[in-house]
Write a structure and sequence with these properties.
CATH superfamily of the largest domain: Gcn5-related N-acetyltransferase (GNAT)
Distance between the termini: 22 Å
Strand content: 25-35%
Radius of gyration: 20 Å
Order of helices and strands: EHHEEEHEHEHEHHEEEHEHE
Largest sheet: 12 strands, mixed
Keywords: Acyltransferase, Transferase
CATH topology of the largest domain: Aminopeptidase
Shape: globular
GO molecular function: acyltransferase activity, transferring groups other than amino-acyl groups
Number of strands: 12
CATH class of the largest domain: Alpha Beta
CATH architecture of the largest domain: 3-Layer(aba) Sandwich
InterPro entries: Acyl_CoA_acyltransferase (IPR016181), GNAT_dom (IPR000182), YpeA/RimI_acetyltransf (IPR050680)
Strand order of the largest sheet: 1-2-3-4-5-12-6-11-10-9-8-7
Structural class: alpha+beta
Number of helices: 9
Protein name: N-acetyltransferase domain-containing protein
Length: about 325
């Protein structure tokens, strides 16, 4: 959530985000990105995907601030797939830079506390509930707003980029496919294998819940997902899936971006260099396919040493984000 001051907004109207609002929503995101430089380049098709997410209720779990026909603030929530030990609603939102300092962000975050409760009780009755949001480290006004509302800084994440994919790939040392392993491109028939790896790979990561078949189908069927740029590693003999690199695409003035949404290695494949070799393979394929750059996000304290892996493949840290968490009950 981007910054705001604690004054009551006036002259604005408030209503849930609807499918017909995506053009205005996209304009708002573009205005925020100019100031925040957060590489948020969602298309209208990406925004429409939110309405089909099985863990999102846009009718009751979203709110936008409007100045006439101009969307000037937004907020929406996504439920987790499990409550173990508690349930967290992820929040995403922002305020048009021209409208900051008018209490828009405060109003949206305050609304979210009330809106989340009934949605939570429908999914996980009686379970503890928390809200999780985030902001860029150094965004003083945002950090102050979260602190005022009782949020605590919970975890830090890095946005990492490869600015010149072709040059970076050309400079990479050889990373051959590990012995006994083969790489295969993602297909619908391999979706279940990829989900198996995802859930095994991330079960020991901070604040991660298992993905469901429904949620996975929504991800791999999304407008930005790129099956041809996503790959799996398999044991050549047993056929067991060992690792995944799942990719999406966005475009900006910097060119086509190969966004690495997930890199994961199942326990059976760890400490064999599979993830490094698979991601290097994906980056080479991406450069050959005409991508100009690559980006990803990573837990700064990942137990698998992911930050170092990405740095060795040419990624550099661009921003650090902090997860802001508020326990509601």
């Amino acid at each position: 959530m981007t910054a705001d001051r604690a004054t009551e907004p006036s002259g604005l109207s408030w209503r849930p985000i609807e499918r017909g609002h995506v053009a205005a929503w996209k304009l708002l995101l573009d205005a925020i990105e100019v100031v925040e430089q957060d590489d948020e380049h969602s298309t209208e098709a990406d925004l429409l995907d939110r309405f089909d997410d099985p863990y999102v209720d846009m009718a009751r779990g979203s709110l936008a601030a409007w100045d006439g026909e101009r969307m000037v603030g937004y907020h929406w929530m996504k439920a987790r797939t499990a409550a173990d030990p508690g349930h967290e609603f992820w929040q995403l939102g922002g305020v048009d830079p021209e409208y900051r300092g008018r209490g828009v962000g405060l109003r949206l975050l305050t609304w979210a506390e009330q809106a989340a409760r009934p949605l939570h009780e429908e999914r996980f009755p009686g379970a503890p509930l928390a809200l999780v949001d985030g902001c860029c480290v150094g965004s003083t006004a945002s950090e102050q707003l979260f602190a005022r509302l009782g949020y605590e800084q919970a975890r830090w994440y890095r946005s990492m980029v490869v600015d010149d994919l072709a040059a970076t790939v050309a400079a990479l040392p050889p990373l051959p496919v590990p012995d006994g392993v083969e790489f295969r491109v993602f297909t619908e028939e391999r979706a279940a294998d990829a989900l198996t790896v995802r859930n095994d790979a991330f079960r020991d990561h901070y604040d991660m819940a298992p993905q469901t078949p429904q949620g996975w189908a929504h991800f791999t069927g999304g407008a930005s997902f790129r099956a041809g740029s996503s790959h799996l590693a398999y044991d050549r003999v047993s056929g067991e899936p060992l690792a995944i690199v799942m990719c999406e695409e966005s475009s900006s003035e910097a060119g086509r971006d190969l966004y690495v949404a997930l890199v994961g290695t199942a326990r059976a494949g760890r400490r064999r260099g599979i993830a490094s070799a698979l991601l290097a393979h994906v980056l080479r394929e991406g450069a050959a396919a005409g991508y100009d750059r690559s980006s990803l996000g990573v837990d700064a304290d990942s137990p698998t040493g992911a930050v170092g892996l990405y740095e060795r493949l040419g990624y550099r840290a661009k921003q650090t984000w902090v997860a802001q968490r508020k326990q509601l009950g």
